[in-house]
Each structure stands twice: as C-alpha cells, then as structure tokens.
Amino acid sequence: MRDRFQENYGVDFTTDENYDLVIDTDDLTANEIASLIIEYYQKSSAATKIPSINFHLWQPCNMRCKFCFATFQDVKQTILPKGHLSEADALKVVEQIAAAGFQKITFAGGEPLLCKWLPNLIKKAKQLGMTTMIVTNGSKLTEAFLKASTAYLDWIALSVDSLEEETNIKIGRAVTSKTPLSKAFYYDLVDTIKKYSYGLKINTVVNKVNYKDNLTEFLAYAKPKRWKVLQVLPIKGQNDNKIDAFKITDVEYKHFLNTHKNVETIIPESNNEIKGSYVMVDPAGRFFDNAQGTHKYSKPILEVGVAEAIKTMDYDLDKFFNRGGIYNWNKTNQYTRKEKANQDA
C-alpha cells in the first residue's frame, strides 16, 4: 500500500510530516482523542476557521432603531462619507471572502435592500460557492425582488422586534422613526417569502420596551427555521447616547425566553454569547469585532487581504459553536424549490 501511494500520488502516507496532527492513540480513550483534535483545531488560527461571515455593506438605513449596535456613524464620519463602498470594490470584497474559504455570507446593513447593486453581490457570492443570506427590516422587501433572486439568494433573515406599532415607534423600528410596519404587513411578508421557498430566519432584539411581548402566535404562523433572540447589546461608539433606556437585566431577558420556551426553533443569544462570536466586515471593507464592547477594526481587506486583516481580530470559535453558529444552511432551498417545481409540474 505504501509503494502504491508513492507511485500514484508521490506521497509516503507513513511519514508524520505529511500531517497537521499526529496522535498516538494506544493509551487514550475516544473522548481524550476527540479533545486533542478539538484543541488543535481551535488553536490553529481559529478566526479563519469560522465558516460564516456578515458583510455590513451599507451604513444607511431607513429605520432609526434607538438600540442599534451597528450604526457605523464612526465609519461614515471618519473614512467613508457615503457610508458604503463602490459596487466594484464591494464585489472585490465578496471575491476575497469567498477565496478565503468562507462558506456562508450574510449581507446586512444598515438596510442592505437600499443598495441598488445588492443583487449583483448576492449573485457573485452564490457563483463563488457560498450560501447567501440577507438581514432586512422588511420595508423594502418586494415580491419582485424575491421572485428575481430565487436562483442566488438562499435565506431571508427578517428583523421583527414587536408586532405592536406603538412599541415599534418607541424603539425606532419604523421608517424614518415615524411609520412602523403593521402586523398585517409582517404576516403578508412571511407569506410572500415562503411563496418563493426561501429559508426564513427571524431576528428579535429583546429590550426594555418589548421584553413582555408575546410573539408565539406569529411564530407559529411564520414557522421560521431559526428564531434568533438577541439580548439588546450596548456597544461603545455605536449606541452610547440612547442605549440606557433599552438595557435589560438577565432576569428580564429570561422572562422573554420563558414566555417563548415552547418555540422549537428559538436560538437565545445573550450579550456574552454575541460578543466575539461573529466574523464581521464593516461598510468600508474592514473586519471588525465587538469582543470588548466596542468596534475594533482591521486594515481594509482590499489593501492587505483577508489573511492579514483578520489576524488582528478577536473572534472566539467556541462561542461561535456554542451559540449554534453551525446549522444545515446549505440544503434549505435546493430541496424545497425542487419539490415545489415537481409539484407545479
């Protein structure tokens, strides 16, 4: 066998130097072996091992959520007056992200649907082999966009903090902070998203104003594949001026979780679980992390490349795994759309 490998592949598979990790398993249990493998994996450039990435490509937003922990006003005021890269540069960032091996990309903002070239970014990402997702407040999510994007967009993450218009006005989850989306709008939007067989994810930020809300009936109707419930997060430099009115205690956060304990797809994310567990790129095309309660930025990806830029980031692989960052994101659309096509035929 050794000779055959050597002849066919030019490799001596018995030589330890050919492997990243070699373990003598004679005196170890299965659990001990697994622990050694996991430990090595975590230490080997953990930041680049996280397979999903959030690209906050667009700083502008048509809503004014007062607790928003990604306003990027600092970016706009210092290096990016328009609040976004050009289409050409944004495409290059996507290309470099894909080349670095990221498997899933989420386009976020601001409000990403304000970006006229978002469809081109989604298409590029899909052509490069990544699972694609957008995070949107829903106000600009039209049926025309959903119909046109079926070949390249896999997931829709819809931000829904409350179905009560008065509550949404208080927290700023309203167009220009004045016009909230109605309960009927959210129900209709869910119907349209499902009409085109997208994977549906719902994000809810639990805060002082909405922690007593009950979304159980809506969730039973929407049936999201994932419902991410995030504890409102103070981030220095992003929401300092308004966050005090929206902070909640752990007890209040748990009250909301207990209200919805029977929702099977719930994914709780406390402040501690959020910090440092996401690989993120800002509107200027730089990696950033929030591990220390503020945004720390890398050098621009287009200047130094992904491998160099990500070295300065504080991303926690354990937290990524523990918050359920890995899930079956690949098969959502391929099968449901194929089944739907067969039914239509």
Short structural summary:
With 345 residues, this protein is of the alpha/beta class.
Walk me through the structure.
With 345 residues, the protein is an alpha/beta fold. The protein folds into 2 domains: 2-41, no CATH class; 45-326, Aldolase class I (TIM Barrel, Alpha-Beta Barrel). It is 38% helix and 15% strand. It has helices at 2-9, 30-43, 46-49, 73-78, 87-99, 118-127, 143-148, 165-171, 183-195, 216-222, 250-259, 271-274, 301-304, 306-310, 317-322, 332-344, and strands at 52-58, 104-109, 131-136, 155-159, 199-206, 226-231, 266-269, 280-281, 286-289, 296-300. A 10-stranded mixed sheet has the order 7-6-5-4-3-2-1-8-9-10. Strand 5, helix 10 (216-222) and strand 6 (226-231) form a beta-alpha-beta unit. The relative contact order is 0.13. The model is unreliable at 332-345 (pLDDT under 50).
Structural class determined from secondary elements: alpha/beta
Query: Can you list the strand order of the major beta sheet?
Result: 7-6-5-4-3-2-1-8-9-10
Spatial extent as radius of gyration: 22 Å
Give the proportion of residues in helices.
25-40%
Descriptors:
single chain, 345 residues, alpha/beta, 2 domains, 38% helix, disordered C terminus, S-adenosylmethionine-dependent nucleotide dehydratase, 4Fe-4S
